Amino acid sequence: MIVGTLREIKNHEYRVGLTPESVHELVAHGHEVIVETGAGTGIGADDATYLSAGARICSTPKDVFDAAELIVKVKEPQAQERKLLGPQHVLFTYLHLAPDPEQTKDLLASGATCIAYETVTDKRGGLPLLKPMSQVAGRMSVHAGASHLEKVSGGRGILLGGVPGVAPGKVTVIGGGVVGFNAAQMAVGLGADVTILDRDPEALERLGTYFEARAKTRFSNRANLAECVAQADLVIGAVLVPGAAAPKLVTKEMLGTMKPGAVLVDVAIDQGGCFETSKPTTHDNPIFIVDGIVHYCVTNMPGAVARTSTYALNNVTLPHAMNIADHGWRNAIAGDTHLKAGLNVWNGHVTCEPVAQNLGLDYLAADDAISGAKA
């Protein structure tokens, strides 16, 4: 199969879909790999490195789309990239379609087969292709929050760890999954006063056992959430409903109870955000202020630490990309129920039920896509 990867064009996105090492593995399996010139610059991999791994270098995105059957990316295709997609393509990347009707419309119109990293599952019910970026984003959320708590960024002027004789900052983490756990780890490591909210008793028990007295856990109901948000200097939104839009847990009304200059970091922004006042931001302009509360809502946080993120991502995506390239997408997902869960769009149909429900579109089961059936 001919596999292509592109230079990412989203604002300050420096990751790349395939590392030179991944290219080498694909070539060793007999596949041809096409890489857009400059695609690996953000991770310190120049065109010569890709050439030595066995890739062919193309000058433009169109060259890649014209030649490749399987397109491996990192972020969702931007509008100009979506125009180059056709029925001959299999797109393998993060999509986050539930809060993005425009992208969904374009992918449906393209006729392409689109497999989303974020809905691929594993035998434990986890999301293994989302996990490494959730780990990165969770850790970065505390960095971002700590930085924007500084007065120069509009924050309260709080040092999260405090100093002897001065209390540490209060951090509320909403959601005890991968993002929340990693955020809590970082915040605890800085010496902050950390509270984690979740609705799953098993998750709360697991978190309590791990952190012991270093972090508090609370059951996430409306009263506890409102209390913790009001007390916090930094609130990290780490809520995930696989494939679906994130629930709006922190309302605009709650902002009025918060301390002026407190910071909200919405790691769920790719799925629409879990704060009512959230809107997507970029690394160029990462924050905005509503009612005196600083909002950080960058949609591609891990792109800022591109080398770490790219290699962590390729560790988990390459086996699936190899499976698709070796066997074709139909055989690959027919033989792997976890990869099948990643199929979001096929031949003008939505094949991920939460996406269809969120966007009010018809749903076609992935098994029907495999058989070539049409709704």
Mean pLDDT: 97
How many domain units? 2
What is the count of helical runs?
15
Tell me the name of the CATH homologous superfamily of the largest domain: NAD(P)-binding Rossmann-like Domain
Determine and state the CATH class of the largest domain. Alpha Beta
| Portion in beta strands | 15-25%
Biggest sheet details: 8 strands, mixed
Q: Considering DSSP H and I runs of 4 or more, what fraction of the residues is helical?
A: 25-40%
Topology:
Blueprint: E1 2-5, H1 20-28, E2 32-36, H2 47-53, E3 56-58, H3 61-67, E4 70-72, H4 79-82, E5 90-93, H5 101-110, E6 113-116, H6 131-148, E7 170-174, H7 178-189, E8 193-198, H8 201-211, E9 216-219, H9 222-231, E10 234-237, H10 252-255, E11 263-266, E12 287-290, E13 293-296, H11 306-327, H12 329-334, H13 337-340, E14 343-346, E15 349-350, H14 353-359, H15 366-371
Parallel strand pairs: 1-2, 1-4, 2-3, 4-5, 5-6, 7-8, 7-10, 8-9, 10-11, 11-13
Antiparallel strand pairs: 6-14, 12-13, 14-15
